[in-house]
Amino acid sequence: MDANITASSPDTKIPFDPRQFGEAGRRLLDIDWTTTPVGAMDTWPQSLRIALGICLSSRFPMFVWWGPERINFYNDAYIPILGKRHPAAFGKPAHETWADIWDVVGPQSDLVLREGGATWNERVLLVMERNGYVENTWFTWSYSPIFDESGHIGGMFCACTEETARVAAEAERDRLAREAMTTAATLKTWFDQAPGFVALLRGRDFVFEMANDAYHQLVGHRRVLGLALFEALPDVRNQGYEELLLGTFTTGTPFIGRGMRVLLQEQPGAPPKERFVDLIYNPVRDGDGHVIGIFVQGHDVTDQVVAVKALQVADRRKDEFLATLAHELRNPLAPIRQGVAIARSNRVTEERRAWALGIIDRQVTHMAVLLDDLLDVSRISRGKINLSIRRVSLRSLIDAAVETAQPIMDRKQHQLTVLLPEQDIDLDADPVRMAQVISNLLSNAAKYTEPSGRVTLEAGRDATGIVIAIRDTGIGLEPASIDRIFELFSQVSSSLQQAEGGLGVGLALSKGLVEMHGGTLEASSQGLGKGSEFIVRLPAPG
Ligand code: ADP
Q1: Ligand 1 site, CB within 6 A
Q2: What's residue 503's pLDDT?
Q3: Looking at residue 107, what is its pLDDT?
Q4: Ligand 1 atom closest to residue 492's alpha carbon, by position in its atom list
Q5: What pLDDT, on a 0 to 100 scale, did the predictor assign at position 29?
Q6: How many degrees, rounded to 5, is the angle at CA 98 between CA 92 and CA 100?
Q7: What local confidence, expressed as pLDDT, does residue 366 receive?
Q8: Atom number, ligand 1, closest to the C-alpha of residue 472
Q9: How far is the CA of 142 from the centre of ligand 1 (A)?
Q10: Residue 412 Cα, ligand 1 centroid: separation in angstroms?
């Protein structure tokens, strides 16, 4: 306080000039105190004057309640707390000013005035209407008694601070924190459930800070969090990924890779499996722009890559097939044309003409078989073949098949052995289609066996049903080709010279027909040059 302004006002006997203390000081002077229970100012006890000096000069919100009516005196710092109650409150009994919260503050002040102790209230909610609307306010305050010259309690003193804004700020901060937590939880759920794989790698060692479910699935659910990438997934080392990650880390340039091949173990120590991924490495930077990690995201595109490769193979096979088909359909045309020319000529003998017609007949039959097979295959794949299944004897089927295959057997001078049970057995089959299957297998055995080979057909019944096995001493099959030969239009390149105009359709057709009978067709071979065996299994008749 300025030492010059200590002069008391002569008419008030107050030991300071209230005017220096702003609005509250002016009100102190303006009010005619004789009309109030406190009485004329010059009768005020010294204790009240001193208390008012402390109160008015302070910049901390304070008030004095004096006398049994608790007449209000307060300083400028306290005015905002009163809101619209100021200026009317100055010089008025406290219970009038604070009627709306008297139930809380009234009994407390009673106690202070009666017993002389002090109160301490921290952040107490007071619901009041001070600005024209009801509001929740929070205050911290302390009441303490003011003793008068006679040692009695003349009034009370209160220093109080409003915490409403701070409480509101804290509530807002809590709300934001809760909101942030909810957002973080939502993001975490999205992150975990993202269909693509996502991982956050920190530092130059690429330590897993986060990895979502899809990422864990990609790496066979191995533990990765908290571990360095190549420590967690040693199988990924030396596949080029280290260089790519370091590239992004050191240059800060994102990396985008499509259909990238990676060999990954599904379990530690398990044989690595080939996967294909589309992925992006994005640099993660700190506040200064330095790269501190890599954000990895991508998709496992193995299924798509495999499907595309299969389509490419199928497409290539189709092209090969079309070329073979054109070739095979064209081949018979030259002999047919020549045969027609000879048959038309007047100058040839009847014998020569018959020979020419024989050629035409054989070539046309060959073309018809090719085309029939093709049509059958397409019908099978569209489910358009109807079998007429009936009870037939095994021997009759084999006889029909052998008869069809006999010409090629003879031509290649093979020795055909047929082993059948002494007692003929019955089965349920479409006789034409089943004979077609067996003759097809016999013809293949003849085709893919060097001349003068041995072909054996053995048929009978075992515990599983009817078994028809065709064995040859021919070129055999590599293990890798065994499954492929049943695919449409597939021909093993090593056997192409022997294919004799086949289109790679016969086995697919035979397998389809056997399966339509509820049976299976399987091939086996000891290897190239070691002969082959084809086994048809059919259910025994019920
Ligand atoms: P095609 O005989 O018209 O080529 P197939 O579907 O009958 O067609 O046979 C497919 C392929 O299976 C043949 O090209 C051949 O490579 C192989 N194959 C079939 N039967 C035998 C067999 N008995 N021995 C060795 N290879 C065979």
Answers
A1: 444-445, 448, 472, 474-475, 477, 485, 491-492, 495, 499, 502-508, 532
A2: 79
A3: 95
A4: 16
A5: 92
A6: 145
A7: 84
A8: 23
A9: 104
A10: 16
Can you list the domains of the chain with their CATH numbers?
10-162 (3.30.450.20), 194-300 (3.30.450.20), 306-381 (1.10.287.130), 390-538 (3.30.565.10)
Q: Which residue's entry shows tokens 């139930």?
A: 103
As given in the structure block, the two tokens for residue 223 are: 């533990």
DSSP per position, 125-158: EEEEESSSSEEEEEEEEEEEEEE-TTSSEEEEEE
C-alpha of residue 504 to centroid of ligand 1, in Å = 7
CB-CB neighbours of 54 under 10 Å: 14
Q: What distance in angstroms lies between residue 459's CA and the mean position of ligand 1's atoms? A: 21
Residue 541 tokens, joined: 């008749």
Q: Nearest C-alpha to atom 4 of ligand 1 is from which residue?
A: 504
3-state secondary structure 168-190: HHHHHHHHHHHHHHHHHHHHHHH
The amino acid sitting at 292 is I
Using a cut of 0.90, tell me whether the model's pTM lies above it. no
Query: Residues of the chain whose pLDDT is less than 70?
Result: 1-13, 493-501
Per-residue pLDDT at 11: 53
- What separation in Å is there between the alpha carbon of 394 and the centre of ligand 1? 24
